[in-house]
Amino acid sequence: MASEVEKWVEEVARQTEPKAVHWCDGSEQEARRLIEIGIKEEKIDGKPVFTELNHTKWPNSYLHRSHPSDVARTENLTFICHSSKETTGPNNNWMAPEEAKKIMSRLSRGCMKGRTMYVLPFVMGDPDSSSAKLCVQVTDTSYVALSMRIMTRMGSTALNRIGKQSGFIKGLHSIGALDPARRFIMHFPEDNLVWSIGSGYGGNALLGKKCISLRLASWMGFNEGWLAEHMIIIGIEDPKGNIDYLVAALPSACGKTNLAMLRSSLPGYKVWTLGDDIAWLRIGEDGRLWASNPEMGFFGVAPGTSPNTNPVMVETLKAGTFYPTIFTNTALDTDTSEPWWEDLTSAYPPHLLDWQGNKFIPGQNKAAHPNSRFTASVLQCATLSKKFNDPAGVPISGIILGGRRSNLIPLVYESFDWQHGVFSGAMMGSETTAAAAHKTGILRRDPMAMLPFCGYNMGDYFSHWLKIGKKLRKAPKIFFVNWFRKDADGKFLWPGFGENIRVLKWIIERTKEISGAKETHIGLVPDIKSFELDGLNIPKENVEKTFSIDEGKWDNELNEAESFFEKFGPHMPAELHEEFDILEKKLKL
Ligand code: SAT
Ligand code: MN
Prior knowledge:
By secondary structure, this protein is an alpha+beta fold. It has three domains: about 5-45 and about 70-225, 3-Layer(aba) Sandwich (Phosphoenolpyruvate Carboxykinase, domain 1); about 230-295 and about 385-570, Phosphoenolpyruvate Carboxykinase, domain 3; about 300-375, Phosphoenolpyruvate Carboxykinase, domain 2. The chain is built from 16 helices and 32 strands. The strands form seven sheets. Strands 1, 6, 7, 8, 9, 10, 11, 12 and 13 form a nine-stranded mixed sheet that branches. Helix 11 (about 420-425) packs antiparallel against helix 12 (about 460-470) and helix 11 (about 420-425) crosses helix 16 (about 575-589). The termini are far apart. About 50% of the residues are buried. The mean pLDDT is about 95. Sulfoacetic acid (SAT) binds next to helix 7 and helix 8.
């Protein structure tokens, strides 16, 4: 008898009409074949899917150029299709499930004609962990199939586990006509289904990423008592060899990957990497919060990644072996067949093709697309934590939330308690980046860096955070960071990158109550005496400036937060309104 998966795959094939169906086993041989297909056979918009790069300098790496209209997540075409609009909330685009399915069925009819449908069975999370989720995605492009093999635990092991059971998470993806007018990324939380058509790019197409691990998983977490968050997971080793674990949420393209692989400027301190994008957080039997990364790969922003800003990532990208490394929409050095992007080297190589494959002329445009990406396995990362594959995850001492703010928000501060931390996270704002297709540099509220990824009403999401806090017997402290504060001349006040270890050190010491802090209206900022300044080559006054609170300038922040909170009406927990009133009173005194 056909299993549940086989039946579903058959049904999808009947609808999409591929020329062949290939069940992926995740083997190296299969990956080689996918690459060959992408180089020699499959075409997207008349162009090959992969170009081979210089394997001496960048082993097993390939360049992919996506359609020029398809270079970032498209939030306006992303929908949550729950039967209740109210449950979906004003933070999501909503469509009734029946209507959405009608549209998607129409767009999907025969959409894989002439193409191969790849069936990708995968597990999100360690297969031996009770929190792992079994998933199957179908796709009609070798780029997505190969990328999913890097990004998830994909192949026969997953398929065996899925076996004949029902209840696996389904992802149906087709690049369709690659036409923005016929592009949708639809989520059906009640059916455990993501249906995406018309885009081959990143978060729109690698469905294990934002669609499953955040939008669907956040809803599952709400119902099952855990949290799916847009967070990195890191271990900080001190000179004595103690390791403390932190999670940190930052919006896309705000330095999460750099923080996840930070090379410390302080002697004796080391950062161990467990994840650079997504964390699933559960309450352990010991009453602490435990984190694990459901993914297996990095899908990071290339521009700005350099031997100075993130040497570990550059080394990771050059360590392609069993898993290939894919570059998407970077430039190409035609003399050496190497990938290139802004800041990788200080000068432009003499002969470059830009991200669209045209001759690059400096000064006219960007060589690499600002949201160009790399895809690489975590197993290539020299700083990968030994705990990465621990089914239990790691116990968390502190939660960091942050955004990109040119002014107002201090380099680091600590919330007074869990409820105050959730409130401060709920009113968090960030300037938009190129990770999504919209105008960049606009300030928008982005609570917990989850605005584009919370799969249900964000008012209920805040209540869920409060509830989790009450259940934790030893709740981690909640901190806020902002690496991006500028001075009056528009220059960054804080050097960032490897120096961020000083902020992490203060945070860890605060979780152990061994470093000092000063109380302000918004939270606790470092007491300069307990902040590590040794060897830092910026004046102490500048550091103090990064901690400063301009109490007179918070009017706009309060107004924006107030109207943001209002959107959620009765779903907004009363506790956060109370916190708002307290802060407003303090700031207006
Ligand atoms: O395009 S993705 O959503 O996968 C990456 C990101 O925006 O963080
Ligand atoms: Mn992300």
